[in-house]
């Protein structure tokens, strides 16, 4: 299927861009003690619209100790991680384990491993058209509800399309089977608004990494979805 390209909308305020940077740091894309990417590198990943808030965001992260200044050359490096108030540390898994917790854990572990590697491959193989399809699905989740597969409903359609974007049919078949198994052990209770928002944010960052052709980042960020 083909969709017209819908450009990403810029953040409404610098706090959103700050959360995005913090999410990438928390996910280990930029490890503790490593250099923060240059402005040009950040522009290639997030787009020029986000960089309007760079100075304000960096100052805020610096005050919190998430970014520190390296004394010898003044470069910004990644400082402490894992702040208690960081939204990226919230659980984003949809649904909860049912009575057979051990089975749910094993299936979810396998699903996470497959999704992580699929995101890595998608960042190197996905065409621009596929990236646009992923973006359209993320921006219009109701489309996923109409996707008829034997394994997954609309709420998991984005993750499945990431696996499809990896270009490996066997991975898709395995993922579908895992989703069937996972569905039998999941208790779908009401999802709190905060968790839904966090899941959407996590998916957006995976898509950002895939579109920016950042395979390592895509894998690390995908690992935070489930």
TrEMBL record:
GO MF annotation list: DNA binding
Keyword Cytoplasm: no
Residue ranges of every copy of the GntR C-terminal domain listed in the record: 109-225
Entries under InterPro entries matching the protein: GntR_C, TF_FadR/GntR_C, WH-like_DNA-bd_sf, WH_DNA-bd_sf
Gene3D superfamilies on file: GntR ligand-binding domain-like, Winged helix-like DNA-binding domain superfamily/Winged helix DNA-binding domain
A Pfam family that the UniProt record links to this protein: FCD
Keywords carried by this UniProt record: DNA-binding, Transcription, Transcription regulation
Highest taxon listed in the record's lineage: Bacteria
PANTHER family cross-referenced by the UniProt entry: TRANSCRIPTIONAL REGULATOR, GNTR FAMILY, UXU OPERON TRANSCRIPTIONAL REGULATOR
Protein name: DNA-binding transcriptional regulator, FadR family
UniProt source species: Arthrobacter woluwensis
